[in-house]
Amino acid sequence: MRLFGTAGIRGSVHSKITPELALNVGKAIGTYIDTGTVVVGRDARTSSVMLESALVSGLLSTGVDVIRIGLVPTPMLAWATNKLGNAGVMITASHNPPGDNGIKVFNEKGIEFFLEQEKELENIIFSESYKMSSWDNIGDVKDLDLKNNYIKEILKYVDSQTNLKVLLDMGNGAGSLITPYLLREMGAKVITLNSQLDGYFPGRKSEPRYENIAYLSNLVKELGVDLAIAQDGDADRIAVFDEKGNYIEEDTLIALFARLYAQEHNGGNIVVSINTSFRIDKVVEEEGGRVYRVPLGQLHDGIKRYNAIFASEPWKFIHPKFGLWIDSFVTIGLLLKIITQEGKPLSEIIKDIPKYYLIKKNVKCPEEIKYEVVEKVKERLQDLLRDQVEEVITISGIRLNLKDGSWVLVRPSGTEPKIRVVVEGITEKRKEELFSLAHNLVNKFVSELSCRP
Q1: What percent of the chain has pLDDT over 70?
Q2: Of 4, 109, 306, 431, which has the maximum CB count within 10 A?
Q3: Does this model's pTM top 0.85?
């Protein structure tokens, strides 16, 4: 893929995600769908209005109509596309730095374009085989505000009231327009933090990793809330702290929802990304279900292939009964419902989910060598761990599942010049041992290949 990564097209506004590119993507989408309506939304980044304008111009030039729904979170754009469009486009770089932006494309069901569809768009762009309409057949634009409609549909689906006290850290992102209002409609007592929209993300880094939101732990205890929830810039991700101020590991949260769906369906297929824990497999298999793993950014392909009842990757959740897109707002609503119905705090609800020891670190790596680095690490890791390996998965970098239940994943980032190293050990010592091995290998090959003449 020359443009699309694991989550649409992303990069620097000055070097990659330019108005020219947005114009061409608009023309390519209009050419691809031929006729109909495209729903367009944008996040709060400083460059989003500029890119939206260029993209809409490209769409209109092909004769398709456009519904602009303005500044919205990505899940709402997907929902609106499912309701009103033949395709949808979101201008966002999700949790990337403020100088970046991006373009995500959705089909008429609100699903991010499949790989084959993204390839077709790339072919149209690079061959410049655009369909251009005559002056008297240019598309029309309509502006709609659908936020209240979206909130009402989520409330209907979740179907629960609560009196929980919730701290929300909106990270200056688009979730500010939905999450506090949704939870107050459910009856929750809401305290907001970083809820002013700001494309510079002054409150914190947009990605809701623990190191970026660790301060919420003390705030939970000081404010006496039942839980804290953080979202990223386009609000498709969430991170959670329980009532004691403990950060809930992403895989534990996935396991909680996976177990819930497996219980409801007396089994069923669950799809998760390649970088997720065996704790998910354990709870799902106990309920008679089965877990399938897919590359990052391909949950939708997995749902289609395995007829999944639930799908997730860290921080991101898809609830197929509501819609086939990542939707943090449905996730938040259902999480509050679970806590309310169980009648006990979140820390107690997740107590019986197995505990393993997981670490994730990124290594900076020039874009032009990151795939070569991963290939070299792949060969060396398999050689060093060959007597311990039970399964080798190569759908996204390399994941080695080991005989003792531990695993190692090394993969190239699909959105940034980085290599991801993820290790889970059955003990803290095992985790550190395996991580040191993998991390050192990545650094070694990055250094060697960067110095190559």
Answers
A1: 100
A2: 4
A3: yes
